[in-house]
Design goal:
about 280 residues; mainly beta; five-stranded antiparallel sheet; 4 helices; globular; about 10% helix
Length: about 280
């Protein structure tokens, strides 16, 4: 097995960026989920309620942030002043973050047709993953909950095979917004992995990822009119464990070291789970 794809998503719910090499630290892949939109009250916004975020590309540069939409609109955003801060809500976390200038927020509000604010997970921001699953004091940025999302090509092939059997088309891996994609032939081997090693770094697979409406959205346009993997996941990937209800695809992982991961790196299973995650049978 080896790493076949590496992705970061600098802007939460924005377009992903494929990388040949990724730096790994305690937060996950360097540069992942460092910016986010909120409503005026500070509640986070994703593609779930704003599908047009799929058309937003964020490219951090040496002195500014370059934001662009698929329709050609673009802007350069200066780093936020560290004293412009607010508390924002992301799931159960309240995080103290830096806020963009009012002129930037006004322009973004025009882009998306609703009042929004651009916020940054800077050096003063702090957030940790659930200690119940990840252990104590594991830092995260604006991810949904954990540091790294791992998926496998064998599992995607199995999902697409079920979709094809039911005349539902097929989907690409981008629908699931992974950080690390492992190339393998076996479907769902990750259900039995407790830990893998890549580039000398151990990644503990701590919790399966329950999926939502974002998997139904084209990750270039935000449209929900194309192939929909949710029915197939409901047939073959419905969790039988009440701790994580719903359809599952991919596993949340916590890095236990720092270093680099590159495309083509071997992936070694260093610890198996005592029992595979329970999946409902048809």
């Amino acid at each position: 097995m080896h790493v076949s794809e590496l992705h970061i998503y600098p802007f939460k719910s924005g377009r992903g960026i494929g990388l040949p090499v990724a730096r790994i630290d305690a937060h996950g892949l360097s540069g992942d989920r460092r910016m986010m939109l909120t409503d005026p009250s500070g509640h986070f916004i994703t593609q779930r309620e704003l599908p047009a975020l799929a058309t937003l590309t964020a490219l951090p540069q040496s002195t500014h942030l370059h934001l662009s939409l698929a329709d050609g609109r673009e802007m350069m955003v200066a780093p936020p002043h560290p004293e412009r801060r607010m508390g924002v809500a992301i799931w159960k976390s309240i995080v103290d973050v830096a806020v963009a200038e009012d002129s930037v927020n006004e322009r973004l509000s025009g882009w998306f047709g609703r009042p929004v604010k651009l916020v940054f997970f800077d050096g003063e921001a702090e957030r940790t993953a659930s200690s119940e699953w990840a252990g104590p004091d594991t830092p995260v940025t604006f991810t949904d909950g954990y540091q790294v999302l791992v998926t496998t090509t064998g599992s995607l092939a199995a999902l697409n095979a079920d979709m094809a059997e039911n005349g539902e088309g097929n989907v690409g891996m981008e629908r699931f917004r992974p950080n690390i994609v492992v190339d393998c032939d076996e479907p769902w081997p990750e259900d039995g992995w407790a830990a893998i090693e890549i580039g000398g770094i151990r990644f503990d697979l701590v919790k399966p990822c329950a999926r939502c409406i974002m998997t139904t959205q084209d990750q270039q346009t935000g449209s929900r009119d194309g192939a929909n993997p949710m029915p197939a996941m409901g047939r073959i990937r419905m969790s039988a464990d009440r701790r994580v209800p719903g359809p599952l695809f991919g596993w949340n992982a916590v890095p236990r070291g720092e270093g680099k991961v590159s495309l083509g790196d071997p992936v070694r299973v260093v610890e198996q789970r005592p029992g595979r995650w329970a999946i409902k049978t048809r």
